[in-house]
Amino acid sequence: MHNIILCIDMDAFFASVEQQANPKLRGKPIAVIGSGGRTVVTTRSYEARKFGVKTGMNIYEAKKLCPHIIFVVGDSEKYTHTCKELSKVYSRFTPDIEIYSIDEAFLDVTTTHHLFGGAEAIGLSIKKEVKKRFGINCTVGIAPNILMAKLASDIAKPDGLRWFKEEDIQSVLKNLPVKELWGIGPSIERRLAELGIKTCAELGEAPASLLRNKFGIIGETLKLMGQGICHRPLIVKDEDPKSIGHSMTLPRDISNRKQIEAQVLKLSEMVGRRARKYGFAGKKVSLTIRYPDFETFTRQTTLPGPTNITHEIYRHAIGILNTIRLRDKVRLLGVSISQLKKEDNAQMALFDYTAKEKSLLHAVDAVNDKYGDFTVTWASYLEQDEQSGVISPAWRPSGVRNVTVKK
Ligand code: TTP
Ligand code: MG
What we know:
- By secondary structure, the chain is α+β, with helices and mostly antiparallel strands.
- 39% of the residues lie in helices and 22% in strands.
- It has helices at residues 13-21, 46-49, 59-65, 76-90, 119-134, 146-156, 169-173, 186-194, 200-205, 208-215, 218-226, 257-278, 310-322, 355-371, 379-384; strands at residues 5-10, 30-33, 41-44, 70-73, 97-101, 104-108, 138-143, 161-163, 243-254, 280-290, 296-307, 330-342, 390-393.
- The strands form three sheets. Strands 5-6-1-7-8 form a five-stranded mixed beta sheet. A five-stranded antiparallel beta sheet has the order 11-10-12-9-13, covered by helices on one side. Strands 3-2-4 form a three-stranded mixed beta sheet.
- The longest helix has 22 residues, at 257-278.
- The termini are close together.
């Protein structure tokens, strides 16, 4: 299965934040300038861009091009604050987030997109939420890797959304000048031109040896870039997760024991799968229950050793369920594992499952990766499945970290 990466980039970020903070600036050509005697434009509203005002110009040049331009001294605290708030919005859709710059982030939604109606639905939700909460527009690029996601976002600007699927990439790159690719600046552009290479397609088809002679080790990477291939993983903040969990608001409140068990199994599978993907196992299993009146509680149990096996997680979650006398129907269910340990060879002995069981689980995961979740799943879930509820990932505090994107 291809990865699905979103690139989210705010439109005219500093200027948009200022226009939001001061309604008098909205719809007007403005430029944000540095404080402390720095009088160059850091960014400008789209209204000012129409006049040709560019980042890096001094105020006199800007004023000459756009006599009505309004200069606003930048306030980095405002932008940093918005940046932090934005990452909270993103984290509702995936824990695998790289905050690349103050206004740009990459989200890997490969394993979560189906929970939210697909990658495009996630992009649209983010655009809507960002507009609603911060009053600013952003652009979303979606693609199998960050290089193409970034390109999609650049092309779709402003206030756009563009999805390059694997099958679109060749035609997108055919006549695209190499400088449009992220990372190809004027110097590489010029040196490529010396080899007669102007478009991405030409770069992708150039002999590897030619590129290697000219650029050394990055020659290979450049060739791949010309083909729209990029292996750079998302750099997710290096922090171990405290827990891996999923919770689900059910389509309707349920009291039937079999239905509850089926949902717990589904959640256990999601948790186990995610833990296996990132090589974690947890020593504690928690079950969260919410009643229709929103009273919510969590109960935990400690296992003899860490696990990431679906059936183990499920068995313990049901063990917890057995200790609870439900006073009403259930509105939401959540399963998580905590006290996580990194699953590595040294710790393998701790895991009470055989190699055979483990390879079966990975085989199931591989099929699901290819054909969508729950293609291969456990029989009792299939029997009980009704319309799936709204499932929200509930990794705490901010999810599985240090993730490498696998091809
Ligand atoms: P960008 O995303 O490059 O630009 P932008 O958000 O203003 O406009 P666009 O709609 O094209 O994305 O940069 C984000 C912010 O970073 C920008 O608002 C101002 C700041 N910035 C600088 O401080 N110095 C710079 O050289 C650039 C390019 C941006
Ligand atoms: Mg931007």
